[in-house]
Structure formats: structure tokens, C-alpha cells
Specification:
The complex is a heterodimer of chains A (300) and B (237). Chain A is of the alpha+beta class and 300 residues long. Chain A has 10 helices and 4 strands; from the N terminus they run αβαβααβαβααααα. Helix content of chain A is 68%, strand content 8%. The chains are: A alpha+beta (300), B alpha/beta (237).
Chain lengths: 300, 237
């Protein structure tokens, strides 16, 4: 029954200035920044996990032997040895043509013809393990190769990209921290707005109290008013952020770089982004309610 | 209410604002249900302060107050609304909510008490009609004259049929005809069992309610010309 004060007519108890005060726009900016930061964090997370999954079980074996005949023989023996090892999902001896193509952008074609001898590019064996390339698995491969290919060097592919992954994870953590800071800033903004509104409407609140109104009734009026502002601001903020994210997405897609391609947002990410204004509205309403209740406790 | 029927009991109550001297001192009296009380006294005698204690806008600096059988000093703050809903108040400065219409101002006590929206229109229109404002039902307070605002304030105070009506100079801004009409309204409520406390310095008003009891405040102290207020009471009314 008491709810009646706060439904259709209850909001009138405090003059409403929907979307005309600064509050909805502050919330819009906060939500837009939060959604962009969250999208960046999610995209980085996707890029890291996708790239990690791709190279997690990858091992590269280089035969670092300058003499071509010995290099070829060691590579062949290494392939035969690894094939017989347990936990190997697949392996491939990278053909000479591919190796030439790898160095071609720097050295051009026809090096052997021009200099009289080919550049001793190491032979490469691309190995896929069934599990991750742990130090134990690497050590087992090294041990098996030592007698048959003493020039072999075994590297986990994930080790090469570890600094990149670390940097991306740091950026992801930064994005999460930004989201947390923006939530704090939103709380502070709502707190200040609620206090100001309390001060402005002090007389009305006092009258409602003297007529038998409860703190909870008054708080619900403020909560509802803040909810309207936050929902409106949140919708505007989400729209702004989506425009920014989609524009940035198109620009990054144009780069055609593997890591960036892997950073595309999936449907659950979009859903999470859409929930941000809802969470912001809830946070604003809870903040307004608690602020008002706290302030009212000081009144008789 | 307590066993002997008192609704308000003040025992040695004093009130001071900040570190100033007491504006009310040593107030001990009992109000009984269904009686009509006038509170008189010169300007600055403490009438409004006493009324504030009665409608729970202020806590005393000392003493004990029982209202409707409850210790009003020690009771938890959460119980104040229930008590306040039993008290109708006509403020000296009306205290209408400026952005609400006359209708919504009058309906406020009913909405606060949880009455259904569809049950509001009838009683609110009736009471506004009674105070002569049926044609101003949608007007906002800033567009009403002082007298009209006062009548809206009175309508708001009585709409919920309070157990006690406290009015601070309720006839201060109305013409003699309306003044008489308002006093008749208070008497009608009083006959239905509402205890009425009216603060006024209009001595003519006192004569219009012959059975009324008079409390006179003089520099924050209460005198009792009718003898009915003394505690313990000289006779049970």
C-alpha cells in the first residue's frame, strides 16, 4: 500500500528534471567510458586466449648446422625420432621453399646464385604436442634428439610471445582497473547529486516526515528519480560507446594482423557490454538510496 | 492511549535551542481525548515550540513525554511515522509543497498512509469543497492567496481524520466568516473524537468554543486558567 507514493504519482513529490540536469549526462559519459574500457579489456583477453590456444602446444626445433648435408641428415633423423615419441599430435619439416620465403623480404631471391653459396638457414621442424609445451616436455624432446641431432635447438613457441602476452595481460588489468575506477566515480557523482537534491528538497522531505512519511518512502522517491536519470544516461552512453567500438573495430580489422583479428568480440562480450548501463543504473539507485537513508537518519 | 485515557502527557518538560536559555520550562500537563484546547500567549511565549513538541518535530531538552501510550523520548526513530500519522498539523506558515496542486497537497497524508489512488479523489474533493476551494483543486500554492493556502493546509491536516489536530494560528489569514467556518470544522472533528489543540492569540476565537480548555503560555511557562490541565489533573474531564 505504501508503495503508492512512489509509483506514478510518487515521483512528483520531488520536482523531476529528466535528462535536463547534469546528472544523466555525467552518467552517460561514465557509461560510455566504462563500456569502451570493458570492450578493450575483453578484446585483449580474447586475443591473448586465442593466440595462446593456437601456440600452446607448439614447439619449434631448429637444426643449427652450417653444413647443408649434415643439417638435412640431422633434420631427417630428428623427424624420425620425434614421430616415435608419445604425446606428439603432429609434426612438419618446414620445406626449403618456405624457409626461403621467410627470409626473402630481407635478402631477396637468388642469394645462392649471386654469392655462390646459399645462406645456411637452420632447418625448422614444427611440432604440435597433445598437451602444453611444458619444460618437462621440452626437456624430453631435447634428450631424445641429442644422440641423433646434436645441433638441434628446441623452443616452445609460447616463449617467443610471452613478453607480448604479458603486455596484453597488463593492458587487460588496466582496463579492469579503469572499469572499477569509473564505477567509483559514478558512485561519487550520484552521492553528490543525491546530497544536493536532499538539500534542495529539504522542506518537502521535512513535511513528508511530519505527515508520517517513512525514511524508506522518501528514499524510494530519490531512488526512482535517480533511476530514471541513470537509465536515460546509461542508454545514451551505451549508444556512444557502441559507435566508438564499431568504428575502432573496422579500423583494426583493416590492419589484418593475426593478434588483432583474434581480438574480435564474441556475442557474450556484447551481452556483457549491454549489461553495463543496467549495472550502472542499479549502482546509481543503490547509492542514492543509501545516501538518502544515511542523511535522513540525522533528521528527527 | 493509557488506561486513564490520556493521549498526551508532559512531565517536567523543558526545551532549549542550542545553548540559549530555555524557551519552554517545567511543562507538566495531560491532554485527554475528545477535548478542545486553546493554547494562548503573547508572541514569543513559546506556543509554536510547544506545538512542535506535540507534533514531534522537536525533541525536548529534558523531561518526559508520553504520546498515545508511548514514551516519545525513548521510542526508536522508526516508530515516529506511525505516531505522526495520528496527528494532523496546520503549520503557521502552511508548509504546502509548492510544485504540487492543492489536490495533491491535500492527498499527501492519505498517500503516505498507503490509501489506494482510486480512494483519494472523493475525500479530497469533499474536503476541498468544504473549505471553499473546489474551484482551485488543480492550483499550485504559489498561485493561491494566503487565505486559500491556509485552507489547503487545514484540509491536508484533517483529511486523514487524525486522533489529534494541532493548529498554529489557523485563522490568521482568513476572513471572519471563514474563520468561524474553520472553527466549526474543528468542532465537528472534535465531536467525532479528535483532540484539537489550537494555538491562537485571537481571544474572540476562544469564546466561539465554549467547552474549550485554555492553556496559557507566559515566557515558556504554562498556566492553567481552566484548572483542567494540572498534573495530576484536578478532575478527569
Amino acid at each position: 500500500m505504501v508503495r503508492r507514493l512512489f509509483t506514478a504519482r510518487g515521483a512528483e513529490l520531488i520536482p523531476q528534471a529528466r535528462m535536463s540536469g547534469p546528472m544523466p549526462w555525467v552518467i552517460a559519459i561514465m557509461v560510455a567510458m566504462t563500456v569502451i574500457a570493458l570492450a578493450a579489456g575483453l578484446a585483449l583477453g580474447n586475443a591473448v586466449s586465442s593466440a595462446k590456444a593456437e601456440i600452446e602446444g607448439g614447439v619449434t626445433i631448429q637444426i643449427l648446422e652450417p653444413r647443408a648435408d649434415i643439417r638435412t641428415a640431422q633434420a631427417r633423423r630428428a623427424v624420425d625420432t620425434i614421430k616415435t615419441m608419445p604425446g606428439i599430435a603432429g609434426l612438419r619439416l618446414v620445406p626449403q621453399a618456405e624457409l626461403d620465403a621467410l627470409i626473402e623480404p630481407w635478402l631477396g631471391t637468388g642469394i645462392g646464385t649471386a654469392t655462390g653459396s646459399a645462406i645456411p638457414v637452420p632447418a625448422l621442424i614444427d611440432v604440435r604436442l597433445k598437451g602444453p609445451a611444458t619444460p618437462k616436455a621440452l626437456s624430453a624432446i631435447e634428450k631424445a634428439l641429442k644422440p641423433v641431432a646434436p645441433s638441434a635447438r628446441v623452443d616452445a613457441q609460447s616463449n617467443w610471445l610471452k613478453p607480448v602476452f604479458d603486455a596484453m595481460v597488463s593492458l587487460q588489468l588496466l582496463a579492469i582497473a579503469l572499469v572499477a575506477l569509473l564505477a567509483l566515480a559514478l558512485t561519487a557523482a550520484v552521492l553528490l547529486a543525491a546530497r544536493t537534491a536532499l538539500g534542495t528538497n529539504r522542506d518537502t522531505i521535512e513535511i513528508v516526515h511530519l505527515l508520517g512519511g517513512t525514511d524508506s518512502q522518501v528514499a524510494r522517491v530519490f531512488q526512482r528519480s535517480t533511476g530514471y536519470d541513470a537509465a536515460g544516461g546509461g542508454a545514451v552512453g551505451l549508444a556512444l560507446a557502441l559507435v566508438v567500438i564499431l568504428s575502432l573495430g573496422r579500423r583494426f580489422a583493416g590492419l589484418g594482423a593475426g593478434l588483432v583479428d583474434n581480438g574480435a568480440l564474441i556475442w557474450s562480450d556484447w551481452l556483457l557490454l549491454a549489461v553495463v548501463p543496467v549495472l550502472a543504473t542499479l549502482l546509481a539507485m543503490i547509492t542514492a538510496r543509501l545516501t538518502v537513508l544515511h542523511a535522513l537518519r540525522k533528521m528527527l | 492511549m493509557t488506561a486513564d485515557g490520556e493521549i498526551i502527557h508532559f512531565d517536567n518538560v523543558g526545551l532549549r535551542y542550542g545553548t540559549e536559555r530555555e524557551v519552554l520550562s517545567d511543562l507538566s500537563f495531560t491532554l485527554f481525548p475528545g477535548r478542545f484546547y486553546f493554547l494562548t500567549g503573547a508572541s514569543g511565549a513559546g506556543k509554536t515550540s510547544l506545538l512542535k513538541l506535540l507534533y514531534l518535530a522537536q525533541r525536548p531538552s529534558r523531561g518526559a513525554i508520553r504520546m498515545f501510550g508511548t514514551d516519545a523520548i525513548t521510542m526508536p526513530r522508526s516508530r515516529l511515522p506511525q505516531l505522526r500519522r495520528r496527528i494532523g498539523v496546520v503549520f503557521q506558515d502552511f508548509r504546502l509543497i509548492p510544485h504540487l496542486s492543492a489536490f495533491d497537497n491535500v492527498a499527501l497524508p492519505l498517500r503516505v498512509a498507503g490509501h489506494r489512488e482510486e480512494d483519494l479523489a472523493g475525500p479530497v474533493r469533499d474536503i476541498l469543497d468544504w473549505v471553499g476551494l473546489s474551484d482551485r483543486i488543480g492550483a499550485r500554492p504559489p498561485t493561491l492567496s494566503g487565505g486559500e493556502q491556509q485552507r489547503v493546509a487545514i484540509a491536508r491536516a484533517v483529511i486523514a481524520r487524525p486522533a489529534m489536530l494541532v493548529a498554529d494560528e489557523p485563522t490568521g489569514n482568513v476572513d471572519p466568516d471563514m474563520s468561524l467556518k474553520l472553527i466549526r470544522l474543528f468542532e465537528m472533528l472534535n465531536r467525532q473524537g479528535t483532540t484539537v489543540v489550537v494555538a491562537t492569540h485571537d481571544l474572540d476565537l476562544l469564546r466561539k468554543v465554549p467547552d474549550s480548555l485554555i492553556m496559557r503560555l507566559d515566557r515558556g511557562r504554562l498556566s492553567d486558567p481552566t484548572g483542567a490541565l494540572r498534573y495530576p489533573p484536578r478532575k478527569t474531564p
